[in-house]
User: Fold these one by one.
Assistant:
Number 1:
Amino acid sequence: MEKFFIRGGIPLHGTVYISGAKNAAVALVAATILCDEPCTLENVPAISDITKCLDILRSMGAVVRMERDGVIYIDPRSINTTEVPYKQAVTMRASSYFLGTLLGKFHEAFVPMPGGCDLGDRPIDQHLKAFRALGATDKVVRGANYVKADKLIGNQIFFDMVTVGATMNAIFASVRAKGQTIIENAAKEPHIVDVANYLNSMGADIRGAGTDVIKIRGVEYLHGTTYATIPDQIEAGTYMVAAAATKGDVVIANVIPKHLESITVKLRKCGVNVEENDESVRVWVDKPLQNTTVKTQPHPGFPTDMQPQFSTLLTMAYGTSRVTEEIFNNRFRYAAELRKMGADISIEGGKVAIIQGVDHLSGAPVQATDLRAGAALVIAGLAADGMTEIGNIHFIQRGYERIDEKLQKLGADIKRVIVPENDSVEMSG
Ligand code: EPU
């Protein structure tokens, strides 16, 4: 078992380079199934969720080759099954993308129920609604979703809520369907636009990605392409908050500043300086942090995937802050861990955190409860007095490429240590 040991209290300084976006890259890898020729993906982050997606492709017969760091060649022509193996599917949300891509290409998919971070109930009813609109049927077989269609025909799809996953899957299932599909109330996240651009670079006809109406005219053939993943908005936001929490001065490079606007606005409200350049942002602090209110929203609103990190910053800001989680119904499990570090944070009705700023956090042994909660604890550890020991760091490695090395380059005292299993404290009750 691996843990992070962080000696906190050191302001971060220097430049950090942001990797390709996890939530774009997992979708791009799955989308490659739709292609009729080999593709090369660039700027793919080295994270465990990508390893699992690539393993799924290999297990289905695709040729997958790492050409060099971040560059992956995928030949989907040798795929010989429409069944996704249980082991990889159940640990990852992105496995649901294989439903849409296999259905779109082979008119059939068998995918074990997707896993992913435990953020509350995460149904896929809207994904299935989209498939049904295009002519597919679905049933649950042996704990897996089985979808099938004799043919897929374009249709109008209206989502009951804004959902990233279902928007992706509706695009995947309709990109080779007959005729036109119109997706309304579509998600507008940067990774939706990235996936549409990737498919269009293969010859797909997708218009309107990034707005709430996406129009897709089905095509019969998709040709090979080479495509670079966009930078990770959430990884960038995490380093922005880490710079602020440690009262440092950091240039976050290889980013699209426009994607970071909602985070930038909230940091400025807290008294943090943010300077936007063409492909980088500089974040530094020269005065005490102030409280603010945050409400998570679909893009372009404040991203739920930044909520734990930002709440952690607010535990060290003067006054009372209020953070409302509007996307998931159980995304404050990390609050109990922050309390162990001296944070004053209480949760009302599962959706609202009331945070009373304290002068400083103090290091403690804590456990990551999911990916972004883990990132939040890293930020807390970097800012806290003394030593923080973070367990369950495999969650963090799902989505942050070499986070310990990147932080070390910024001057942090963080070590990844292999700890024998029996050194962990058993909980009961
Ligand atoms: N929802 C439904 N029915 C559906 C689909 C979604 O009720 O059929 C609900 C969800 O339960 C949730 C809301 O709609 O309350 C939004 O869910 P969405 O579908 O947008 O989320 P997702 O596709 O499951 C992706 C990211 C998450 C990110 C959310 C929101 C990937 C692989 N995952 O999840 O990323 O939080 O969008 O932006 O792209 C993370 O990276 O840490 C992470 C959790």
Number 2:
Amino acid sequence: MDEKLFGILRCFQLDGEPISCEPYGCGHINNTYLVTTTSGHRYILQRINHNTFKNVAALMENITAVTEFLRKKAEDPRSVLALVKTHSGDSYVYAQTTYWRVNEFTEGSICLQTPEGDEDFYQSAIGFGTFQQMLSDFPADKLHETIPNFHNTPDRYRIFLETLQRDPMDRAKDVKAEIDFVLAREQEMSILQNALATGELPLRVTHNDTKLNNVLLDAETREALCVIDLDTVMPGSSLYDYGDAIRFGAATAAEDEKDLSKVEMDLNLFRVFTRGYIKACPGLTQKELQYMPLGAKTMTMECGVRFLTDYLDGDNYFAIHRDGQNLDRARTQFKLVSDMESKWDEMHRIVKEETK
Ligand code: ADP
Ligand code: GN1
Ligand code: MG
């Protein structure tokens, strides 16, 4: 095992001595490792991406506050992410010029990149919906805004325009169709943000990164078990969470699929997630329900804009494993948006039916 990683692990209160530490998972932001110790205990070690999260202390305060709050309400201890403290009682350590944390590996769980059936996706809706519902009385003013304007879509659009104007890699000339796709949708990208600003939509504590692979399912029952990846928990709109989950989980292909003919927004999966989210989160307002299709579309558009911006900028934010991967990711998102536009009336009809 890498001696450096071993040194970092020694800072934490582990059960046994670490014997292996292997790269794990499919995240785009942090570096994740699966750790096993001499006692057979397993942990997740993460290098926190300091470029993305400028204030790691604030980030860890958020996670500590939210997990402690949830743990008081939880029946099953496995249902809440459990941080492991360092020997000095901290929730993270600064070592080798960066920040590290450890949490318990949730045994007996599975993490899916795509749903293997409707029920898996339904369960993820129950997981994220329950998370929202359980945090509805969390004091939101206790949370730090760790990435300001994270899901402020018009602000993401503004950064896109700035990057396009700079065009530092001279890539804009090759992606004219994608750029035009974004420019044509400027107006509607502001609707949710405006509704939040006027109070038409309530401000809630949200997860903000509700990809299917951020909720663990119980391997045996396949029921929702534990919401993970709490880095982006901040005040926001429930439609950020609902919309981002549809964006990722109702897609018929991977986020970086090159063959766009495979990429669609599956209406059945859309229905399944909508059903679960509404069930788990009965406090949603009429406006939130009414804006669900727009939430899905806005979050997909926003993510596409972020991928395209990062492509134009030289791939500095989202980790890539091959050239052009961020452009491929942007293209799948725009394909999903087009598909939603063609299914718009049906999406509204489904939300109405699932609300009854
Ligand atoms: P990122 O922000 O990079 O997506 P995550 O916190 O989502 O990081 O972790 C990456 C992956 O590691 C997850 O998708 C999951 O597969 C795995 N993972 C993270 N925490 C746990 C846990 N407590 N138990 C089991 N697997 C986990
Ligand atoms: C990032 O960390 P990960 O892979 O769960 C990103 C999300 C994007 C997602 C796209 C902090 O999530 O906002 O929707 O990639 N997280 C951050 O796959 O920017
Ligand atoms: Mg993740």
